[in-house]
Amino acid sequence: MAEIVFAVGSSHGPTIQSPAESWARLGDGDTRDPRFNYRELLATARPGLDQEITLDVQRKRHAAARAALAALTRRIAEAKPDVVVVVSNAHRIRRAEPHPVFGILRAGAFPVMQRAMETYDPDARFVGDGPVPTTTGDMPGHPALAGHLIDGLIEDGFDIACTDRLPDGAVIDDAYSFSYDWLFGGKPIPVVPLLLSRDLPNQATSRRCYDLGVALRRRLDDFPGDARVGLLASGGLSHQVIDEDLDRAVIAALVGGDVGVMRSLPRDRLNRAPGTPEILNWVTVAAAMSPIPMTLVDYLPCYRSLAGTGHGVTFGYWL
């Protein structure tokens, strides 16, 4: 039987992986992002954002984010997990590949690129299928637990796509390898990548994601092998356009255990910015940990432009 020994939620991405001095470059990239209208955002942005994008403010928030990451890293190390189920989303879907609503990667190892060592190019993701990554190593998987979850969740009525290997030359999405670089302290902890699509039209509702989390917990509890299991919600909250009101409402629901709010997040509000649906990862993990509420480590609205673009960087834990 598996024992859940920790559950954490952590933002990922260039805001916290890049020094504060590079945030202006990220903001400049936002002006060319085809997924939203920067001019409209600039015209309707709230006053006072000029005070939010000073280098001094950005440096303080970047330092706070790194401190929160360190706190979660210590918590994970103390828990000594045998395997971690990472709930997140694929960021760069190749046009010729299927894109399921839910999926699990069952491979025994996944090629990774350590993005902590990469200079982030904010324009790269908009050019074709993106640059060819350089593989720098492997991240271990856990096929036994992955297979058990696939079978059990399908039995519970969730159609779970199973992938046993990545395409030739591909690396696992940085939404998952982020944990390897930034939360596991470089330790080769096996992971089970659980994919939730964050893209329309094939994006589950918050209600469906909450129900998935409940089923996930049930199937972890009946895993026949002995394993110390961790859960990680990787991503979120609002980005590439910050929605502080939504972020704070979601955090209040996670901290207060408000199931009604978590199951009824408006789909249109979640999709005001392309990255904001990653909130669904947190809803899934919160459901798996219910009735334990989340403890907030930090929330940092990291603005990078006068149009209000940036990242609602958030960190929390349940155990």
Name the beta content range: 15-25%
How many structural domains does the protein architecture include? 1
The number of E-state strands comes to 11
- Helix percent reads 25-40%
Distance between the termini: 18 Å
Which structural class matches the secondary elements?
alpha/beta
Low-confidence stretches: none
Assigned CATH architecture:
3-Layer(aba) Sandwich
Form type? globular
> What gyration radius follows from the Cα positions, in whole Å?
18 Å
User: What is the fold named in CATH at topology level?
Assistant: Protocatechuate 4,5-dioxygenase, Chain B
- In N-to-C order, the SSE pattern is EHHHHHEEEEHEHEHEEHHHHEE
How does the SSE layout of this entry go?
Blueprint: E1 2-10, H1 14-17, H2 23-30, H3 38-44, H4 49-52, H5 55-79, E2 83-88, E3 102-105, E4 109-112, E5 137-140, H6 143-155, E6 161-163, H7 174-182, E7 191-196, H8 206-221, E8 227-234, E9 239-241, H9 244-256, H10 259-262, H11 267-270, H12 279-289, E10 295-303, E11 309-317
Parallel strand pairs: 1-8, 2-7, 2-8, 3-6
Antiparallel strand pairs: 1-11, 3-7, 4-5, 9-11, 10-11
Give a written overview of the molecule:
This protein has 319 residues and is of the alpha/beta class. The protein has a single domain, classed as Protocatechuate 4,5-dioxygenase, Chain B (3-Layer(aba) Sandwich). It is 37% helix and 20% strand. It is built from 12 helices and 11 strands. The chain has helices spanning 14-17, 23-30, 38-44, 49-52, 55-79, 143-155, 174-182, 206-221, 244-256, 259-262, 267-270, 279-289; strands spanning 2-10, 83-88, 102-105, 109-112, 137-140, 161-163, 191-196, 227-234, 239-241, 295-303, 309-317. The strands form 2 sheets. Strands 1, 2, 3, 6, 7, 8, 9, 10 and 11 form a 9-stranded mixed β-sheet that branches. A two-stranded antiparallel ribbon has the order 4-5. α6 (143-155) crosses α8 (206-221) and α8 (206-221) packs across α12 (279-289). The chain starts with a strand and ends with a strand.
